[in-house]
Amino acid sequence: MTYMFGVPQFSKVNIKDNSEFPHYGLFYYYEGRILQDVNRMKLKGAPVIFVPGNAGSYKQVRSLASVALRKGMDNDRGIHMDYFTVNFEEQLSALYGGYLENQKLFLRIAILAVRTLYKEANNVDKSIILVGHSMGGKVAQAVIQDPAIAKYINTIIFISSPIDKPVVNFDPKINEFYSNTDGYFHNKRTTHLPNRQTNVCLNYQDKIPHQGNESKILDNILMISMGGGNRDLLVRDGLTTSQYNDIHAMTSSIPKVWLSCDHLSAVWCLQLVLVINRFIFGISVIDENKNVFFSPDKYYRTQTAINYFVKPLNKPKSNEVYFPKLNSGSSWQEDSKIAFRKVFKNGLRADYNHLLPTAKYKELKKIYIEIDSYEDFENDWVFGCTAHRTEASGLYCQKGTSLSHFVQTIPSHDNYRYMVLLDIHRMLKYYPDWTHILVRLKPTNKPTSLKIDAYSVEDRKYKIKAPKFSLPKLKTLVNETVMGTIHTGVLIEGLDEPFPTVQFDIEPVECGDDEFGVTAKICIPWARGFNRHIHLTHDTKVKTIYVNVPFSTPSGYNTTQNPVTLDLFLNPSCRYKISYQFSIAGTFSKIVQEFYHWLPAHLTAVLFLVLRNQIVSFQNSEDALFVKPYAGFFQSKSLYIVTGCRLLKKLLLNLKFLPISPDTSNYSFYVSIIIHGTAIVLSIVSVFSIWTILTFHGNILHKIALKLTRLSTASSEILMKVVTTLPLSFGVLFISISVGTCSGIGLTLATIFYFLVISNAYKDYLENWAWDKAKGIFKRIRQKIRSTSKNKGTVALSQREIIAVDGNPGQELIPNNENGDTNELDDSNEVANEEKCSYFEGLENFAFHITMLMLLGIMSALNFGLSVAWIKAKYQGHIHEHLPDPFIIPTIITLTCLSVLLQLGAPRKSSGYHYVAIILYLCVCGCILFCQEIVYRLSYLITFVYVCVALQEVCYNFYTLILDRRR
Q1: 3-state class of 261 per DSSP?
Q2: Catalytic: 134?
Q3: Residue 813 has what pLDDT?
Q4: Phi then psi for 857, rounded to 5 degrees?
Q5: 8 A C-beta contact, residue 219 and residue 212
Q6: Which of 382, 479, 654, 931 could potentially form a cystine with 601 if both were Cys, beta carbons 3.0 to 4.6 Å apart?
């Protein structure tokens, strides 16, 4: 964690003409107990503006700014930074898009205000670096749509920002903001998309533009994006890159960071903060007046960014290096072993020179050289040379050519490992005179080691096909590695979607006296900047490496020719067993992370189909059988609809006349089935939870709802009576609330009150049901008593009949009950019918209304961001702030339809429901085709369903009125 060197202080910048956004602010960061006024300071540093993101504070700049402040005090060049930060009052810009446009407009004002500070102080023209975290990065990107601002921006650094797509597309304002930015950038900046030939594992810089395109006015701005990786659960790694970025890197692959960062720690992680500031200082220049500027040279900035965020750029050195004579005390040693390891536990007192004859390794093709715990690694330590042998001094090289540009750094648990992998065949093609590879170690007091592993590529490259969805079955890749093996690689074919996960188990068979240690490097050939480094030690509980990709391959990409590569850097003193299998846990966790935002669309689709089944079941029910509470939820028909939608999407994508296009994402069928199956289970759990609450805890939740709405019991009873007497007042009340506040507040209160109406009706039903049951039991007991008495009377009567018949053979007797009631035999049927009718009349509407309640609840949840925005604005005293309400019209229509349904006592036995059933089928398809990625469209679909159901009831009501008048 980054700690402050002094007391963090923030000096507010005075901004003229800021009447539109008085609650926003711009601050200058400094440290110390002495208060400073930035408006009176003479600033000479280079300006950097930090833009916070969703619920982000302007104080999050303190880690970056504090390190820069200390670095500016310590460097000899006199370069220092001036860090500014923007206060957006921790607004939830990822949930409500209405904030984004206001934030962009204020950031424009802030940039001009910062420039004014420098203009007044130094009369110089300085460019600015923008550092945006989370949604702040998107705002920083959008502000350069203004040409007057774009010319002042030097570089934009995105930290865990969803750049090209939002995390979840909650409302039209978010969608509009992203669409406008993408449309502008498409014409004004060069795009960099992977294609069929892309393989960044072979050449990272192949797709990096080094010079700005003169026809693209935004190309001179350097854009660098960073993602947190697996630990960032808020912004998944595939969203942190952009087709318009120049450089992308994951924190797990950035040199000297090497670790995954969660979403918040990215702004205070010391390793990452240091790298960002080193880059900013690296592109800074200073003039004779001590004014600091950022370099305008795009190529220079790009190379510097690659050096800090991708890998150190050690350029080939053409000049030859001359080595000291042997009498300097240096030692020379030649060794041609395939596997070699030499440890210097006490360090080195003199130069150590190790010669590797190229002729001996020519057949093996590859030679791997590694040193660790070596403090002088930045200097040249590996060379190619032509050796000479003398009688006096033996074999040695008088001069050599540096190969340091091949050196790579990989992380270790307590230090770094510096390695070089040389292709002997290729090297001798260009330098046929070289006889040896020289490893030259300089004196050091620290323990160090030299490791060499020469091998044939065919012996160390293992090709596997990524297993698809299947039960875990462990397959052995390498039963036991050869002692001395340091480097081996696995090529994984068929890993072309972001959710299948392959699990590699690395088990040490024997390690001797050394500790277990493995470093893995994962490279995705079509995903630039998504390399990952994983380090396993003896302290690691699970010796497992999970391999997956951030996003799908480009169209037509061949993963057989360009497979995902897994490089394993092993401890040569250990022997390992390497095995792999399909990881169910890793795959499902990846599906949750990548596709959880599909769940609202599939849940709504399930409820539409449930509603359709309930309406049909109710209309087709005979002899007054009630519709069961769970009717329609236990079904698998919607899974077939998911299959049909995949085929229908291919047809719709070719139709040009559609006003909106379906989701273009094309993933395996498994994803849709898993998400939809989850939605079915969730709907079943939800409906049973609601019914359980209504049955056992209705009164408790009734009281909770009253507290939430701040209604007294008397007020609640009055509202209930009003709604019962005149249900249209339901719509009038909550439409008025929606117009007076916002649609989110109105929908939320309507959902709560709708639940109260259902709860109150169900409570009355339970009371009537209990009374009917008690009355039925009492009638049965009374009937049984009468039946017993009648039987006794019948026996006595039979004896009299025998006597009477004997006396009067022609006389016919008719038995009567005591009360003379001849209909006692039908009493039991009447009781049963009465109970059945009462049960039916009490329960028949509840299943329908529970489904409608759940749909209204989903619509309320989609407006959660708007509701929070309105409440926050009210309590912060910014109620005058204009907050666009994109859902006010759908809300008014939905609440109107709901009040009409309550007024008509829906559902009722009617005709025309077949058309509604067909429309609901189409709406199910609409959810899956159009609403998986663009979630806010669900609100319009739910409104459309409410309209269709209400319209069918209204039409049938008019139809019956016309028939009654004709009669």
Answers
A1: coil
A2: yes
A3: 42
A4: -65, -40
A5: yes
A6: 931
pLDDT per residue as tens digits for the range 891-933? 999 999 999 988 888 888 778 888 999 999 999 999 999 999 9
Could you tell me if 572 and 515 are in contact, meaning their C-beta atoms sit under 8 angstroms apart? no
Round to whole Å and give the CA distance between 811 and 109.
115
pLDDT of residue 797: 47
pLDDT band at residue 753 using 50, 70 and 90 as cut-offs: confident
Q: Per the omega criterion (within 30 degrees of 0), is the bond before 357 cis?
A: no
Task: Decide if 693 contacts 699 (C-beta within 8 A).
Answer: no
pLDDT band at 611 (very low <50, low <70, confident <90, very high): very high
Structure tokens at 885: 């309400």
The pLDDT value given to residue 810: 45
Q: How far apart are CA 662 and CA 392, in angstroms?
A: 81
- Classify residue 348 by its DSSP letter: B
Contacts of 866 (CB under 8 A, 6+ apart): 96, 98, 171, 742, 743, 744, 883, 885, 887
Contact in structure between 531 and 408 (CB atoms under 8 Å): no
Residue linked to tokens 């539409």: 608
Show the tokens assigned to 828: 């039991």
Instruction: Return the closest-CA partner of residue 421 out of 435, 406, 409, 433.
Output: 406
- Sheet of 544-547: strand order equals 475-478, 575-582, 502-510, 544-547
pLDDT at res. 301: 94
Helix ranges (DSSP H) in 290-348 = 298-309
Within 10 angstroms of residue 629's Cβ, the number of other Cβ atoms is 17
pLDDT digit string, tens, across residues 49-83: 999 999 999 999 999 999 999 999 888 888 999 99
Q: Is the CB of residue 881 less than 8 Å from the CB of residue 23?
A: yes
- Encoded amino acid at 135, one letter: M
- Per annotation, catalytic residue among 63, 93, 127, 134: 134
CB 501 within 8 A of CB 544: no
Vertex 950: Cα angle to 944 and 953 (nearest 5): 145
Question: Which residue type does 578 have?
Answer: I
Report DSSP state, residue 626: P
What does the H/E/C string look like for 861-892?
HHCHHHHHHHHHHHHCCCCCCCCCCCCHHHHH
Task: Using DSSP bridges, classify how beta strands 532-537 and 8-12 pair: parallel, antiparallel or unpaired.
Answer: unpaired
Cβ atoms of 406 and 384 closer than 8 Å = no
